[in-house]
Amino acid sequence: MHLPFTAGGAKVVRVASWSKTHGLVRVDGHTYFPEKYNNFHGMTINATWFPFPPYLMEVAPTDANPSQVTAYAGRDYSILQAIAEALNFTVNFLSYQGWDQVMIRLIHREAYIRPIKLAVLPNLLEIYDFTFFIERATLGFSMAKPTIKPSWQSLYYPLEPEVWGSIAAAVILVFIVLMLMRPESEKKTHETWPVLKQVVGTLLDEAIPGGLPRSSPTRVVLTAWLIFSFIVGTLYRSNLTAYLTAPKYPPRVETLDDLVGKDAKITTTPDITEFIDSWKRSNSKLFKALSDRIEIVPTFTAGLLEAIEKGKAYVYERLNLEVLIAEHFTSKGGFTPLYVARQNIVPGYCGWPLSPNTPFKANLDHCILAFHGAGLIEKWTKEVLERTQFDSRRRMSTATEADGTSSGDQDAVEIHQVTTKALTLIHMQGPLFLFLVGAFLSFAVFIESSSGEYEYAMRAAQALFEETMKERRSRRCSSFFVLDEGSTVNVNKMLDSEYQGSDGTAIFKVVGGRVSDTNLTHALHSRAMSQVHRLRLLSWCVTVVVMSNDPSFLAAFAEASDNERLLLWETRLLVITSLDMPLLRRLLQDYWSFSMMNAMFLTSKAEENHERCQLYVHLPYSPAGAQVVRVGSWSTAHGLIPLDGYTFFPEKYNNFHSMSINVTWFPMPPYFEEIESHLKTNQMASFTGRGYRMLEVIAEALNFTINVMPFENWNVVRENIISRKAFIRPIKLAILPRFEKLYDFTMFIERATLGFTMTKPTIKPNWQSLSHPLQPEVWGSVVATVLLAFIVLMWMNSSGENKESETWLVVRQVVGTLLDEAITGELPRKSSTRVMLTAWLIFSFIVGTVYRSNLTASLTAPKYPRRAETLADLVATGAKIAMPPDMVNFVIGFKKSDSKLFKAVSERAEFVASFKEGIEQVSHKHKAYIYERLNMKALIAEHFTNQRGFTPLYVARDNILAGYCGWPLAPNTPFKTHLDRYIMDFHGGGLIEKWTTLVLEKAGFDSRQRQSKTEESSSESLQDTDKTP
């Protein structure tokens, strides 16, 4: 074996030997297939590189030692040094001669490693090997920070329009009041200027013109106005100063979508060309747009300068961008006109590129994985960034001291984007109170009285959250709040509970104004419910809280959440409202989301001066039937109390209390069928089949009765489920995306068993059957042997005493004995002729025996043509395909499929009225019939199999669809989890397989029994006919 790295260098060593005496013996402690790369014995590994701070860069020599050996630094250099120490090798960095040379060295194996991370892309995997990932791919982009253009409206912005209006109203009001309070002597002059100067002048921070008023009421009003003017003036100047010093910057471009939407040009350096090629071949419109706009610049300096001067974006590695901006485009005070966008451009991970088929990749991966586990990669990244920033500040400080100049504008601290809150009416409550005391107090009393009920409800909801979150403490739960436009409550109080433990909270406020129910439903569906549904899919458990006193809003929420399939039984819904009981009952009874799902209403209607809230739920199945019940209450005195043995968010479907559940069906043996004996009498319909047996067991466990709706046709069955006239169709259906939009499904029953049946291929009579027992090569060898034997015997007869024998005699000897005839004439006297004839007789006996045996076998056990057993075989036959009408949705799905096989099936599909009509077309027109596998087997056994068990049909081996089947349920069926639990138990107990076997055996037995009775009745009728004179 060759060992490339040993203490003595690369060499070929003998690791073992084998001998008869000692067997297999290892030599010098070696092992078979020894590990070559756990120890490099101090040998050198070539590495290629390029300057890429902060990952790998060359350290400049110091002034004290300018001739020192080249040194390197950086995060990835630290990683490589740690690996080299662990594997005992030294690193030899090849001199940097350009980007192309760096990668060519890897391809040609002049170097093994490029210890600088690179995104692991499919086109790069075709060229290099990669180590285990170092970190996520961090390709980003940098742009110039957006700035603000001066505007004359800046003097107007510090106050909102409502505030300006209220100030104008106060000015007019005070002016009128002061005019009315003037002395009688001044009223006669009708001069308004002194009063106007008092009002407007003091508002503009001027002194009161003239002397102070003598009237006490006027002094009180003027004093209040001075206080108001002081407050307004101070707030205006403060907000104006804040607005001018902390302006509102335009939004930055932070994502790839923003960058493409901005329509800006993009620059990068030549070493990104591989990414550009990958983007051009991508199916993403964003990446294609990115590749179309990109321009190559020689250096990063040119790219960043164009970003500052021309508004372009510069694409490169994120940390490298931050380091280069900090080093070359940042002032001593930390100001830079550039920023690096928040989002990465390329998803995925980075690793070190290696030369193709690097044998010690696993050793490198082992070390890198250990570094990840110890947190060393993050530690080294942090250290090199801190060191780089320190070196950058020291270089700028040194350069500033050398120049002797200050950096003026560059030292200005950047003000990050902050939304400045303008002065609102809330801030004006103090000044306005001096003039609108009565109105403000009456308004405050009104708000207090109207919000008191909501306050009670919030306190009750907080207590309810504490109680329910105790149960769910071990799970990561989220809370979603949906508020209407009029809700003014603060939900943060509810979220402050020590038991809240929420994995996330989202608040949706639906703003639609006073619109009709239809428009509000549309607004909920398009703006809120789709967002809530997406968040629900990302959460382990969810509680949805709806707050509104508007019945149309709550009704619209119920419809939208139902249409969007927002609620599962595991999703808890709490509705906080103060509606009257009749409206509340109507909502609980009329809407699916409130009546059937895990919903509870918390009503904040106070009772006889008690701060009390009530909790109501709708129980669709109870001993008293469907009803709205009170399950608990909350009061300031007693807290949260459950009532009458109920729990909060009670379980509704563990016991149906013998109430009826509608079931829709269609005849589909052996899964579900009506018993024939009841078809001929007026007795109540009775059913059988595997699906019915499973449903009976579930009904007994959940204590409900089964009401099987009459079968009319397939479309009615479908509409019964969609419109919720029936909850369950206990006949399996393939779980396909098209069907999941229409129905819910139980847990899978079994694999999807859609198959097809065709007629068994037969053999047509053929004169060539006599040649079939032997292959053509065997026939050729027999003919050759006959000729050879004839020639040899002719030659032997001509050289002996039988020279005058005729040719015919030899022919009869050779061909006759081959055909099992006796030897004609006398036996030959010559020994050689006898030996030859004996050998020929043995050959003739063997060939004749083999031929007769094979001929008998081929006639009694013929070789039938190959059957079509797969979908590909079926398409290859070119046969037409018959289907029943209930397969129309499958055909539509096949047409939309990308599979050529499914498209071919949809093009050849023809619908037939019944199974018998389809099988007749299969028998007479050589078509295929597609339907459920076990159903076809049962019907073939019942209608197309004789008493001896023969049928001209067969069901193909392979299923057409991949996937699983379940029972279709009505949309948002709330007790789906209960059905799933029992189906899981059936799987665990092997009951589904057992019931399948039983119903198939029963179907076969019934078929044979019917055929036997039919034959007996036929024979009796024939006997009666014979006796008739």
Task: Characterize this entry briefly.
Helices cover about 45% and strands about 15% of the residues. It has about 1050 residues and is α/β, with parallel strands linked by helices.
Q: Strand-residue fraction?
A: 5-15%
SS-derived structural category: alpha/beta
The helix count comes to: 35
Query: How many strand units?
Result: 40
Identify low-pLDDT runs: 405-431, 1025-1029
| Radius of gyration of CA atoms, rounded to a whole number | 46 Å
Q: Give the mean pLDDT.
A: 79
Could you say which overall geometry the principal axes of the C-alpha atoms support?
flat
* Most strands sheet: 8 strands, mixed
Record the strand order, biggest sheet.
20-19-21-22-23-24-25-26
Structure description:
The protein is an alpha/beta fold and 1029 residues long. The chain has 35 helices and 40 strands. It has an eight-stranded mixed beta sheet with strand order 20-19-21-22-23-24-25-26, with helices on both faces. Residues 405-431 and 1025-1029 have low confidence and may be disordered.
